[in-house]
């Protein structure tokens, strides 16, 4: 029988092969249309998730699983062993020709690990590079460059990233996929990875497991430990870097974020939904399968999948051009967002006032109720 570490590596490699095969069949040298590229990423996510869930059920039937592509089951909180997986990290990059910055994440969290609760087995596959990085086996490559290279999200870099790079006399390098960025630090291609735009446990569990075992510094951006298998799997920020850079980066981040507070998990989920009104990209919106939406008392969505499709392609959302004056209020499992929404209306712009109520019992949005009024 495979050890947990061997199983993590095997599963990451197998899912990577599946994703490469699918990508080679569907993606040629000519870029796909945006909708087709997005669909390819979702197919990869779904197919790799199916493979990983089936393999884990066969190899470790008593363990729980937390996956980006599956509904969260609170029973995992009582299980001493939980596999945390991201079947395709970087689905946007996966759908673009020539991009290698996408990955497969497989990690095992144990309540009774050698050092208490934490990641005890981890693997990150970068199939386009033909590499699988394994916790406890892959070692970090030392960097000797004088100017540190700091990798950040190419779509949502931290607001403080440019000033942080200036403070440490470094250079910013945009890149997709949390796993790809973390492994760039591991290889010595970069010196630090900083993120503060919101993430989930599956985004960082495997990269952190591999990086920690290789001797790199891993923490929240305030220096506190990264904790996994929490009741709500939102984990908004991350620092992975060479140990000798950790203190200067943490000090710089602290100085630049002294007045900023991260979103709570529920507000972060509501914010992703509201962002999708403008971007028409609902890939990061966590909607329960049973989610329903009402607008001024009328039902406008009977399932999470239907609502997600409408956010991306619905005619009622296509004219939306901006959100302004956004505020949140949270109590218990409820979040209310109030904002002004701009949309094209003929040659001009129409603005309406929206109050949007989100019922969020766990790691997904259960219901959305909107009231739309003329703007003041």
Q: Give the second-level CATH assignment, the architecture of the largest domain.
A: 2-Layer Sandwich
Q: What is the averaged pLDDT score?
A: 93
Helix/strand order, N-terminal first = HHEEHEEEEHEHEHEEHHEEHEEEE
Output the radius of gyration. 21 Å
Indicate the low-confidence ranges by residue numbers: none
The CATH superfamily of the largest domain appears as Fructose-1,6-Bisphosphatase, subunit A, domain 1
Level-1 CATH class name of the largest domain: Alpha Beta
- The domain tally reads 3
Describe the global form: globular
Tell me the strand order in the biggest sheet: 12-11-16-15-14-13
Largest beta sheet, briefly?
Answer: 6 strands, mixed
How many DSSP helices? 9
Quote the distance from N terminus to C terminus. 67 Å
Q: Could you name the CATH topology of the largest domain?
A: Fructose-1,6-Bisphosphatase, Chain A, domain 1
Count the beta strands: 16
Structural class: alpha+beta
Helix content: 25-40%
Strand portion? 25-35%
What key attributes describe this structure?
376 residues; alpha+beta; Fructose-1,6-Bisphosphatase, Chain A, domain 1; D-Maltodextrin-Binding Protein, domain 2; Nuclear Transport Factor 2, Chain: A; 3 domains; six-stranded mixed beta sheet; five-stranded mixed beta sheet; 9 helices; 16 strands; 32% helix
Describe this structure in words.
Helix 1 (4-26) runs antiparallel to helix 2 (34-59). The protein has helices at 4-26, 34-59, 91-94, 161-167, 178-187, 201-213, 246-256, 265-279, 304-313; strands at 64-67, 81-89, 103-110, 118-126, 131-134, 149-153, 171-175, 192-195, 217-219, 238-241, 287-295, 298-301, 320-331, 334-345, 348-359, 365-374. The longest helix is centred in the N-terminal third of the chain and has 26 residues, at 34-59. It starts with a helix and ends with a strand. The protein folds into three domains: 4-134, Fructose-1,6-Bisphosphatase, Chain A, domain 1 (2-Layer Sandwich), CATH 3.30.540; 149-256, D-Maltodextrin-Binding Protein, domain 2, CATH 3.40.190; 265-374, Nuclear Transport Factor 2, Chain: A (Roll), CATH 3.10.450.50. 32% of the residues lie in helices and 30% in strands.
